[in-house]
């Protein structure tokens, strides 16, 4: 079907929707097309700032009818920037930030524009929380639909494991509520399949008693001791209870108030922890940190869970350029430790190599029970270059490439929310092979025309049905994305 011009789309959408419709040059257009990764600069033909599910449905139906590319932007944190279409229609859901906490039922319903910082603050008023992102400015939607890692996951499972239901706008523009009873297949796909199956306009989560005070923070050691710290970390993880989550990160000490000025920018290896138990229990479980000898800096304390959830906020500044690679590790062999320990220091202060543990409640869910896979992995490793000056792009890409070339042979699969623009084989690698075929079959059932393709795309199995009802051969996986 032929596309439409910006003027027609603007006029039509103004008639069909309640939310603001923005064209290039309009006030708010640039803010609505910005994403977290400052390297992305896409210009939609038109942006609909959705006021609710009805606007989303109108936008989806309009894009299909007009044959224009559709993108879904919730909070814009995905590094690929596929939340924003270049030349098509972007549905901006960031204003759909309603949040309802039901302490009696231990449940919360959040709009796709809700940030984890707000979610945590409101849920913690009742001593409750669910697994959510480790930076308070990350949003609930994209993170949860892709799986959802966070400090609580060893105790409470992935964010997607805590989904109770989703209000969804499907590819034909219908608004529907999906849970395990209404549509078990679709609900399965939504828990890990990313934005491939519709637009989530509300997400209902199970909440758990957490805190409000936990033990958290980090201990920093000189980068030269990375090999020793990583070997210790491997053993520490093996014995860790579910209430303890510990990351091991290679970084530069930030120029933050809690860091003495003489240590700012110093390459270091950090063990960052969250312990959900009482003070005595945490003291016992964290005592092994003392085996590592004197650190450069130790900042572990009893703190509010909401404060712990902001510890990394400095590294999450909107507009930074970012480029990274990630993968799952079944174990942490000596050879992988050697690669990490001999890594050259990051070219700028916000770059980070992060080892995040799975295990606990994540591993107790079966590999194909949800679309989110790789549950038996011990760790996820990510190498992220973060910088501001475009002139430094090549140096940062080269740093990631050199480190990743060494690490990649030890990895198996990847967390879909940590994927960059890496091609269709890497999207497939995010899933168990049986889940991948089921996802492709379900995509053919729920989105045969691949309307939702600006994402880590799962191509529909079999021929693709276009909006006009025409059947075309199935594309090579990922070619539509
Ligand atoms: C600073 C930072 C910290 C992060 N921390 C974590 C972390 O702790 N744990 C973790 O697991 N991940 C983390 N991430 C990764 C994050 O989960 C992904 O980037 C996620 O895709 C962002 O979600 P979003 O809602 O901002 O997506 P957007 O960037 O707005 O959209 C990205 C894609 O998600 C899909 N999507 C978004 N909203 C919807 C919706 N409502 N319905 C259907 N599809 C939708 C679309 O396909 C869209 O193209 C972090 C990212 C950043 C930048």
From TrEMBL:
Cofactor(s) this protein requires: FAD
Gene3D superfamilies: 3.30.465.10, 3.40.462.20, Uridine Diphospho-n-acetylenolpyruvylglucosamine Reductase, domain 2
Keywords assigned by UniProt, alphabetized: FAD, Flavoprotein, Oxidoreductase
Residue ranges occupied by any FAD-binding PCMH-type domain in the UniProt entry: 40-210
InterPro entries to which the protein is assigned, alphabetical: BBE, FAD-bd_PCMH, FAD-bd_PCMH-like_sf, FAD-bd_PCMH_sub1, FAD-bd_PCMH_sub2, FAD-linked_Oxase-like_C, FAD-linked_Oxidoreductase, Oxid_FAD_bind_N
Keyword RNA-binding: no
Region (Disordered): 453-481
Family in the record: Belongs to the oxygen-dependent FAD-linked oxidoreductase family.
Official protein name in the record: FAD-linked oxidase
């Amino acid at each position: 079907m032929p596309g439409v011009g910006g003027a027609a789309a603007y006029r039509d959408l103004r008639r069909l929707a309640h939310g603001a419709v923005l064209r290039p040059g309009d006030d708010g257009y640039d803010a609505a097309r910005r994403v977290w990764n400052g390297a992305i600069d896409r210009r939609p033909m038109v942006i609909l700032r959705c006021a609710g599910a009805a606007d989303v449905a109108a936008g989806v139906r309009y894009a299909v009818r007009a044959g224009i590319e559709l993108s879904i932007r919730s909070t814009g944190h995905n590094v690929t920037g596929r939340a924003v279409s270049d030349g098509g229609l972007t549905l901006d859901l960031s204003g759909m930030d309603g949040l309802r906490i039901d302490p009696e039922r231990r449940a919360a319903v959040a709009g796709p524009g809700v940030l984890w910082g707000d979610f945590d603050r409101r849920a913690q008023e009742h001593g409750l929380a669910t697994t959510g992102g480790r930076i308070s400015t990350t949003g609930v939607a994209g993170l949860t639909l892709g799986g959802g890692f966070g400090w609580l996951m060893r105790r409470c499972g992935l964010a997607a494991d805590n989904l109770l239901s989703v209000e969804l706008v499907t590819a034909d523009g219908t608004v529907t509520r999906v849970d395990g009873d209404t549509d078990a297949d679709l609900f399965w796909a939504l828990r890990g399949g990313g934005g491939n199956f519709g637009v989530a306009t509300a997400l209902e989560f199970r909440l758990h008693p957490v805190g409000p005070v936990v033990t958290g923070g980090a201990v920093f050691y000189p980068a030269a001791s990375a090999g020793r710290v990583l070997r210790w970390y491997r053993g520490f993880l093996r014995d860790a209870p579910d209430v303890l989550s510990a990351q091991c990160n290679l970084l530069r000490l930030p120029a933050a108030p809690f860091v003495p000025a003489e240590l700012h920018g110093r390459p270091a290896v950090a063990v960052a922890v969250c312990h959900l138990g009482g003070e005595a229990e945490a003291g016992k479980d964290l005592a092994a940190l003392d085996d590592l000898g004197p650190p450069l800096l130790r900042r572990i304390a009893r703190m509010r869970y909401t404060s712990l959830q902001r510890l990394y906020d400095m590294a999450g500044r909107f507009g930074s350029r970012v480029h990274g690679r990630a993968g799952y590790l079944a174990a942490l062999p000596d050879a992988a430790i050697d690669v990490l320990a001999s890594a050259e220091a990051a070219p700028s202060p916000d770059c980070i190599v992060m080892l995040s543990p799975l295990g606990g409640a994540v591993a107790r869910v079966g590999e194909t029970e949800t679309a989110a896979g790789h549950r038996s992995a011990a760790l996820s490793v990510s190498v992220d270059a973060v910088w501001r000056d475009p002139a430094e792009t090549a140096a940062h890409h080269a740093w990631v490439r050199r480190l990743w070339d060494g690490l990649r042979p030890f990895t198996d699969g990847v967390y879909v929310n940590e994927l960059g623009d890496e091609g269709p084989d890497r999207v497939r690698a995010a899933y168990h092979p049986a889940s991948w075929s089921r996802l492709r079959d379900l995509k053919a059932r729920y989105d045969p025309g691949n309307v939702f393709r600006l994402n880590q795309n799962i191509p529909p199995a079999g021929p693709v049905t276009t909006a006009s009802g025409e059947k075309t051969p199935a594309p090579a996986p990922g070619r539509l994305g």
